[in-house]
Amino acid sequence: MGQYESAAILIEAGARLDVRTPRGFSAADFAREHDVPDFILQAFQGQPQACEKVAALALNDEIIEEFL
After folding, report:
1. Confidence of residue 61 (pLDDT cuts 50, 70, 90)
2. What is the pTM of this model?
3. Burial class, 17, CB count within 10 angstroms (exposed 0-12 / middle 13-18 / buried 19+)
4. pLDDT at residue 57, as a whole number
5. DSSP state, 20?
6. What is the DSSP string of 4-25?
7. Between the CA atoms of 6, 11, 15 and 20, what dihedral angle is there, to the nearest 10 degrees?
């Protein structure tokens, strides 16, 4: 399982997306500065549905390349 699928599972499980580092950076800041899949970016915009689908597929050992 890849890092983005793992992130989708954490988001689907209710991980807080508003946490910041001591320097004030958030996971959303990281996502905006790096090439991450759309389903991750959508979750930071308040639309976690694609993460929920990716998480379900990953947990069921399905192929998820269609989302990447």
Report:
1. low
2. 0.77
3. middle
4. 87
5. B
6. HHHHHHHHHTT--S--B-TTS-
7. 90
